[in-house]
Amino acid sequence: MRSRSRELWYALVAIVVVTALYLIAYLQAGAFPSASGLVGHGIGILGSILMLMTATLYSVRKLLTEARWGSVAAWLRFHMVTGLVGPYMVLLHTAMKFQGLAGLTMLLTVIVVISGLVGRYLYTAVPRTIDGAGGATGGPDPERRRDKLAAQRRAAATWHILHVPLTWALFAAAFVHVVAALYYATLQR
Amino acid sequence: MNHRPGFVSATGIVIAVVLLLGVLAWTLAKGPVLFSSGPLNAAAKGPALGGVTNHADLAGDCGACHPAPWSSRTMADACLACHQGVGDQIKTGKGIHGGLAGMRSSPTCRGCHPEHHGANGALTVLDPQSFPHDVTGYSLSGHERTAKGARFTCADCHPKDLMSFDQAICADCHAGIDAGFMKQHEATYGKDCLPCHDGGPLDGANFDHSKTSFKLTGKHAAVACDKCHPEARSLRDFQGAPQDCYSCHAEDDEHQGSFGQQCEQCHTAESWADATFDHAVFPVNHGGDEEKATCETCHPTDVKTYTCYGCHAHTEGNVRDQHEGKSIAELADCIRCHPGGRPAGD
User: Fold this and answer.
1) Which residues in chain B touch residue A59, judged by CB atoms under 8 angstroms apart?
2) Chain A residues contacting B, CB < 8 Å?
3) Using CB atoms within 10 A as the burial measure, which of A174, B199, B283, B342 is most buried?
4) Cα(B225)–Cα(B44) distance, integer angstroms
5) In chain A, which residue's Cα lies nearest the Cα of B19?
6) Measured between CB atoms, which of A35, A62, A181 is closest to B6?
7) Which contiguous run of DSSP H or E holds residue A143?
8) Which one of B3, B35, B66 has the shortest CB-CB distance to A101?
C-alpha cells in the first residue's frame, strides 16, 4: 500500500463501520434517526468530538517538537482520518435536514473538508525540494525550477489561509447550534 | 520555532466574531428562526386557538411553545394554554387525553404530536403497536394482525379520523370471518358490541369461564350462554347473573321448597339424581336396615324442623310413657337428650 494513501483507507474503513451501525438504526426507525433522538444525538456528539480533535491535536503536536507521541506525519494522518470520519458522522446526525443555522454549520463543514482534501492534494502534488518525488518542474534550468516551486508553495499556503479561518467560522456556528439545540430541544421540559 | 498552535488565526477569530454578530442580528430582527429545525404546520383549519389557526401563524414567536428550560412552565403548559379543550379532558380525567394523563407514566404532548415537519407535516403520529389503547377502555391485545395476517393500522378501525369510532365496522370484519356466528350472535345480543367487548385477553373467542367466579362444571358446561344470562347486554349484565342454584332451578325443585333453597348441599352440577348429604348431626341410618328412613320420615314438612314420631317405634304415646316421672319440658326436641339417636345415659 502506498504510504501516502494510508489515511484515506483508514478513514474509509471507519466510515464503512459507522455506516453499518447507522444502517441498523435506520432500518429499525424506518427513516433517518432524528437528530434529537438517542442515535442522532450520539452520533452528532461523537462526530463533533472527532472534529475538535482534528482541529487541535495535529497543531499541538507540531508545536511539541521534543515530544515522543508519534511522528508529526503520523499525527497528520490522524488529522486527516478524524477530519473525514468526524464530518461524516455529523452529516448522518443531520438526518438530511439542512434548515437554518444547523444547515449553515453543515455547509461550513463540507467546505472545510473539501478545502482539506484540496490542500492534501496540493501538498502531495507539489514537491518540497527540487529533487522531491513527483518529478522536477520548470524544465532543465535549476533556477527556473526553484522559482516555479516557490510559486507553487505559495499557492499551497493560500489554501491554508482558507482552511483554518473557515474552521473558526465552522466551530463558531457549531457552538451556537449546540447552545440553541440545548435550549430549544434537549433541555426542553 | 512557532510558539502558537497552527489553528490560532487572527483571520479565523475575526470571521468567527462576524458570524456570531450576524446570527445575533438576524435573531434580533426576525426572531430565533435560524434555530428552527423545520417549517411549522400550516395546513390545520378550524377555529382559531390562542389567536392562530395553525402553528405556522405563530411565525417567529418560538417562546409560545418553547419556554426557557429554567422556567417553571413546561412545553405541555404552553400547549394547553391554547388547546384548552385538551386541558379540560385532562382535568376531568375524561376522553383520550384524560385517560392518557391518568397513566402512571403519562406521555408528553410531543410524544404523539410532533412539529417542525413542514407545512403539511402530520400533527398526530401514532404507532398502533405502542399506543396505550387501553386508556380508551378497549384493549388491542386481540387486534395485532388482521384475518389476512397484515398488521392492523389505525385506519382499519378508524377510517374517518382517530377520535371517532363506529361499531358497525366490527361486524364488517367479523361477518367476513364467520358470517353464521355473527348473525346468531347479533340476534342473541344485539349490535352494540362495546358494552360487552373490551378487547382484553379474555374477550371474544378467548373467553375462559373458569377465570370467572362461577366455574362451569358438569352439565353447566354445555348450557348456551343466554340460558343463564338472558337478555344480557353488557359485561355488567353478564357479571350480575345469579350464582345460587334456586335462581335458575326453582322450577326443577321436586321438593317444592320443603328442603330449602340450598340445593348445593345435596346436589352437584353432574346430575340431580346423585344427591349426597353430610347429615353429621344425626345418623341417617338410624333405625338400621329394618326400616330405611327417607328425608320425609323425619322431616315431613321441611328440613328446618324434624320429628321422631315418624317411625312406628316412636309414637307420641310411647314416648310420653317412657318419659313418665321425668321432668322433661320439651318432649318434641328429642335430640337434646338423645344426640345421635342413642338411648338416654349412653
Assistant:
1) 5-7
2) 35-36, 55-56, 58-60, 62-63, 65, 97, 99-102, 161, 164-169, 171-173, 176-177, 180-185, 187-189
3) A174
4) 49
5) A169
6) A62
7) helix A142-181
8) B35
Q: Do B37 and A180 touch (CB under 8 A)?
A: no
Question: How many residue contacts between A and B have a Cβ separation below 8 Å?
Answer: 92
| Residue contact B7–A59, C-beta within 8 A | yes
The pTM of this model reads: 0.72
The whole-number average pLDDT for the span B131-156 is 88
Per-residue pLDDT reduced to its tens digit, B185-194: 999 888 889 8
ipTM for the whole complex: 0.86
Residue with cell string 442515535: A39
Are A63 and B19 an interchain contact pair (Cβ–Cβ within 8 Å)? no
Residue A131 binned pLDDT confidence (cut-offs 50, 70, 90): low
- At residue A1, the pLDDT reads 46
Would you kindly state where each structural domain of chain A is located, as residue ranges? 1-97, 100-189
By Cβ distance, the residue of A164, A169, A177 closest to B6 is: A164
Q: What is the mean pLDDT of residues B119-144?
A: 88
pLDDT surpasses 80 at A130: no
